[in-house]
Specification:
This protein is of the alpha/beta class. The chain has seven helices and five strands; from the N terminus they run ααβααβαβαβαβ. It has a five-stranded parallel β-sheet with strand order 1-2-3-5-4, with helices on both faces. β2, α5 and β3 form a beta-alpha-beta unit. α1 crosses α3. It is globular.
Length: 239
């Protein structure tokens, strides 16, 4: 499986964002977490467009990269990216959240092609990603990368404390965590979120979560022998 590198013209990035926002606009109804979705849009797009080695035709390939959306309570941006990449039909977005729609307010891996986990109960994604890496290792699959997207507030959860503390010393190089930081965490961390990962033996970086080139550089930076964390700073939740 290969990854294609695309043009980096800022105008192209603006076009991509506009197209995805149009797709998000097709999803209406009683969704209460549109800001949570919007905060993830750029990171998800860069990941799926330029980094992640998975496509509709390889969604069940053992050698695929895995993406786990832990921040699953605001999935509209995720669904928009999946639709743009052909995992789901654009028309399916119109039924978002409906009784008969596969696109629920939380993603369901049994209903949506390309979705690896059912999520939305915060704090589960990072531990599941750790387990996924360990499972791949047990099968001798050392090439696939595992990506998980979490929100900064999720890091208040004890389950993430344990997963974070384990992954560094275990040298889980296949593990990549994207933290969307919209200043909604209760406790915070002295020195910033990235320092918390670094203290546990991770490679970590903090970038502008709207800057596609900065995100791409951080996502693809080498980190031999260590898991990788990228903190993507976006506008505060209430702005």
């Amino acid at each position: 499986m290969t990854t294609t590198t695309y043009a980096t013209d800022p105008a192209d990035a603006r076009d991509d964002t506009a197209r995805l926002r149009r797709l998000m606009g097709l999803m209406t109804g009683a969704e209460k977490h549109s800001s949570a979705a919007t905060s993830t849009l750029d990171a998800l797009w860069v990941l799926y467009d330029r980094v992640l080695r998975v496509a509709p035709g390889t969604a069940d390939d053992p050698g695929r990269d895995r993406f786990l959306l832990s921040k699953g309570h605001g999935p509209m941006a995720y669904y928009a990216v999946l639709a743009d990449k052909g995992f789901v039909a654009e028309d399916a977005l119109l039924g978002f959240g409906g009784y008969d729609s596969p696109l629920g307010h939380h993603p369901d891996r049994t209903l949506v092609p390309g979705v690896e986990i059912g999520s939305g109960s915060l704090g589960h994604g990072l531990p599941l990603a750790v387990g996924t890496v360990l499972g791949l290792r047990a099968q001798g699959l050392t090439e696939p990368k595992v990506w998980v997207l979490v929100g900064d507030a999720e890091l208040d959860e004890g389950s993430n404390h344990e997963a974070l503390a384990y992954a560094g010393p275990a040298g889980l190089e296949q593990l990549h965590t994207i933290v969307i930081d919209n200043s909604s965490a209760t406790h915070g961390w002295p020195g910033g979120i990235a320092s918390r990962f670094e203290a546990a033996g991770w490679s970590a970086a903090t970038v502008d979560g709207r800057d596609h080139e900065a995100l791409y550089a951080a996502f693809t930076a080498p980190h031999p022998g260590r898991p990788r964390a990228v903190v993507a700073r976006v506008e505060p939740k209430n702005s």
